[in-house]
């Protein structure tokens, strides 16, 4: 989009927040870059230049605007809509892979050479993986500076910088302020406890929280997830330790309170929470297309901005999907809770009732199938999945959707419902669709969509947003997953 000069100018002049994260406006006279919705008077078009990423603008010598904070805008929805190399790379960079494994580790996960990854990412983003990771470290540093009382030396290490000098130079270059000046300008009181952070996770309006939080709470596993004081809380397994997050819907943002065992996990934790709540979606584009179907249009009008509830851990969701095959939601939660108690890693949660991390595939590898209160065929399915996960089946942010679907479909007991459920919520494919789902069948009958073949044929017009259409169809039934829990 950044190459369409006239369209970008119109978006900036209209201060259109829908384009925040799609591109960045650099002002040639001030050497500042902004988000399209920046509240200041727009510059003259001849003084505008546009970049596809904050990293590209920084690399070109522009610093972040102090008013609109473009580095904190919602991410581009492109990276969650696509499954090509660049999109997969961007999801992995957001998850902190470059900081923990370097560009070589990123390339290895993607199955390409370092040169190929760097060339394709630069061609589309105007910056390479290292520059993109550097921009993310700068944003992490700013968050820690403004929300904690950590000494700057500790903070630099937590943000991923190799030295205090690099930390200071980067912060000055990106924000035109020293770390100390940034902290002095910050509003609010820093978190008192080390590792306790209060953040705002922005999103593009509108957002319908009903199915989003209703689904997460209705299917929540005791000990791992809970609804407390108007917030969804859960434990997180992160690269350097564990975490606990509380997420509460607010106007224009999600209030996020994170308690981390290791502050180096802040980028990964933030990225996973955004993916969980589908916060980088473009709801206007989704709703506009779905509303062209006269049967879906009233549903979209009644609840604009529905998101797809996803997951913070693809392997965890896949295990839970198998446990939920052909049983009720309550039964699936019971099965999962037993696994958590028997094989999960205990955690301390002084603020609530969270007790464990969900068991990792390696922990489940020692599972005795005779202890599972389920049919023998489903035991075999679960053990086959655990074996595939321990052997390297990737259900993470950078997975190849087509290859992963094929790998899942080859496992015993994996039919279309299980594969598409994992594609929708673990892989994040916005076009995943479950025509065999009981809720979809009920919706089809209620709306007069016809049988399964007719629903599949009609859904072609909903592509590539069939996962979002699924949320609207499920909302035609009276189920807790469609409602916001009581505070």
Provide a quick synopsis of the model.
This protein has 487 residues and is of the alpha+beta class.
- Counting copies of identical and different chains, the oligomeric state is single chain
State the end-to-end distance: 41 Å
Shape label: globular
At the first level of CATH, the class of the domain at 281-475 is Mainly Alpha
* Sheet with the most strands, sense and barrel status: 5 strands, antiparallel
Might you state the CATH topology name of the domain at 281-475? Answer: Endonuclease III, domain 1
| Average predicted local confidence, pLDDT | 92
The poorly predicted ranges are none
Number of strands: 11
> Reading side by side through the largest sheet, how are the strands ordered?
5-9-8-7-6
Radius of gyration: 22 Å
Considering the protein shown, what is the CATH homologous superfamily of the domain at 281-475?
Answer: Hypothetical protein, domain 2
Number of helices: 23
- The amount of beta strand, in percent, is 5-15%
Q: Structural class from helices and strands?
A: alpha+beta
Could you say what the CATH architecture of the domain at 281-475 is?
Orthogonal Bundle
Can you give the helix content as a percent range?
40-55%
Structure description:
The chain is of the alpha+beta class and 487 residues long. Among the domains are: 5-72, 3-Layer(aba) Sandwich (DNA Methylphosphotriester Repair Domain), CATH 3.40.10.10; 135-188, Homeodomain-like (Arc Repressor Mutant, subunit A, Orthogonal Bundle); 281-475, Hypothetical protein, domain 2 (Endonuclease III, domain 1). It contains 23 helices and eleven strands. It has helices at residues 5-13, 54-59, 78-81, 85-94, 97-110, 114-125, 129-147, 152-158, 164-175, 179-185, 209-218, 266-277, 283-290, 297-302, 314-323, 329-343, 361-364, 376-390, 401-409, 416-427, 438-447, 452-459, 466-474; strands spanning 24-27, 32-34, 48-51, 63-64, 196-202, 225-228, 231-238, 241-250, 253-260, 345-346, 356-357. The strands form three sheets. A five-stranded antiparallel sheet has the order 5-9-8-7-6. Strand 8 (241-250) and strand 9 (253-260) form a beta hairpin. The longest helix has 19 residues, at 129-147. The radius of gyration is 22 Å and the shape is globular. 49% of the residues are buried. The model has no long low-confidence stretch (mean pLDDT 92).
């Amino acid at each position: 989009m950044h190459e369409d000069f006239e369209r970008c100018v119109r978006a900036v002049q209209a201060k259109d927040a829908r384009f925040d994260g799609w591109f960045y406006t650099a002002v040639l006279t001030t050497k500042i870059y902004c988000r399209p919705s920046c509240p200041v008077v727009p510059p003259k078009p001849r003084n505008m230049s546009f970049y596809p990423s904050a990293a590209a603008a920084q690399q070109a010598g522009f610093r972040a605007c102090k008013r609109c904070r473009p580095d904190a805008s919602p991410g581009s929805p492109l990276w969650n809509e696509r499954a090509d190399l660049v999109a997969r790379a961007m999801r992995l960079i957001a998850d902190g892979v470059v900081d923990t494994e370097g560009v070589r580790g990123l390339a290895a996960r993607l199955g390409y050479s370092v040169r190929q990854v760097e060339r394709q990412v630069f061609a589309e983003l105007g910056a390479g993986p290292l520059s993109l990771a550097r921009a993310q470290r700068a944003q992490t540093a700013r968050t820690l500076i403004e929300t904690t009382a950590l000494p700057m030396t500790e903070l630099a290490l937590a943000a991923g910088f190799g030295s205090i000098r690099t930390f200071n130079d980067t912060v000055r270059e990106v924000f035109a302020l020293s770390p100390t000046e940034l902290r002095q300008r910050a509003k609010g009181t820093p978190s008192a406890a080390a590792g306790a952070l209060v953040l705002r996770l922005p999103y593009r309006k509108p957002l319908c929280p009903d199915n989003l939080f209703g689904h997460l709470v209705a299917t929540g596993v005791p000990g791992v997830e809970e609804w407390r004081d108007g917030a969804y809380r859960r434990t997180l397994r992160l690269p350097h330790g564990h975490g606990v997050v509380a997420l509460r819907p607010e106007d224009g943002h999600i209030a996020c309170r994170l308690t981390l065992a290791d502050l180096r996990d802040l980028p990964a934790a933030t990225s996973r929470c955004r993916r969980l709540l589908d916060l980088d979606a473009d709801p206007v584009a989704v709703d506009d297309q779905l509303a062209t179907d006269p049967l879906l249009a009233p549903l979209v009008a009644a609840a604009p901005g529905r998101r797809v509830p996803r997951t913070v851990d693809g392997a965890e969701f896949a295990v839970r999907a198998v446990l939920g095959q052909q049983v009720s939601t309550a039964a699936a939660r019971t099965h999962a809770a037993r696994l958590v108690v028997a094989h999960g890693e205990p955690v301390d949660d002084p603020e609530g009732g969270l007790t464990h991390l969900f068991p990792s595939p390696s922990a489940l590898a020692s599972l005795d199938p005779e202890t599972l209160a389920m049919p023998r065929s489903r035991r075999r399915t679960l053990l086959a999945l655990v074996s595939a996960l321990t052997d390297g089946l990737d259900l993470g942010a950078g997975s190849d959707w087509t290859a992963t679907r094929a790998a899942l479909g080859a496992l015993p007991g994996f039919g279309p419902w299980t594969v598409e459920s994992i594609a929708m919520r673990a892989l994040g494919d916005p076009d995943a669709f479950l025509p065999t789902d009981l809720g979809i069948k009920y919706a089809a009958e209620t709306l007069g969509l016809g049988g399964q073949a007719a629903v599949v044929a009609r859904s072609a017009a909903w592509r590539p947003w069939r996962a979002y259409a699924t949320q609207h169809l499920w909302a035609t039934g009276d189920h807790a997953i469609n409602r916001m829990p009581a505070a």
